[in-house]
Specification:
alpha+beta
């Protein structure tokens, strides 16, 4: 018997090979529209695309202002030559009435550093404000020997230590500052200054 439930179905010859018709490439109308669209296009002379090199990094505007301010303050403040001890190349300064021996003790590390302030990354105004607050807090806390980290100016234009010159000038004008000197290598060397403050009045 044929046609039972378990029987196999037989397809008509060629039925399994039928596939959906594929669309032909482009119609004549589409080709005409394409020609109109690309009529004004010009072929590239080269397949290479030229990219202009990036401009050199600009000097931050605030850094330029800081340099100008440093120059102005150097003209009206103490001469940098006055901030060096006995013609040496290490910054050192003492107020009138402070003995040379006290300054030398400061340089030799006989005063213990009690507090430190890092001014890296500060603008001129930020550094001056932070320094003023720090000095006031140290005096209030009876901390007389402190360290100010100003950096060596490695990232400044011309590698000039702009912030260092500013900090030395500010310190020399502060009434509470008795003396300062360049830090020893273990405390930051040329990138920091050790400061001796006047004892707070009780």
């Amino acid at each position: 018997m044929s046609g039972g439930r378990g029987g196999k179905r037989h397809l008509a010859p060629g039925a399994a090979s039928k596939k959906p018709k594929q669309r032909s490439a482009l119609t004549a109308e589409e080709k005409a529209l394409f020609r109109i669209a690309v009529a004004d296009a010009e072929p590239l002379v080269s397949d290479r695309v030229y990219h202009e090199p990036p401009p050199p990094p600009a000097i931050p505007h605030q850094r330029e202002l800081d340099e100008a301010a440093a120059l102005d303050e150097s003209l009206h403040g103490p001469l940098l030559s006055d901030l060096f001890l006995e013609g040496g190349d290490e910054a050192a300064w003492r107020r009138d009435g402070i003995s040379l021996r006290m300054l030398r003790d400061l340089r030799r590390g006989r005063w213990v550093v009690q507090a430190s302030l890092d001014l890296h990354g500060h603008t001129r105004d930020e550094a001056r404000a932070a320094l003023a607050v720090f000095l006031a807090e140290c005096q209030a806390g009876a901390q007389r020997c402190i360290r100010i980290v100003h950096g060596k100016g490695q990232h400044s234009p011309g590698r000039e230590p702009v912030l260092k010159h500013l900090v030395l000038g500010w310190l020399s004008r502060r009434r509470e500052v008795l003396a300062f000197c360049q830090a020893r290598p273990s405390d930051g060397g040329a990138g920091a200054v050790i400061v001796l403050l006047q004892a707070a009045r009780g």
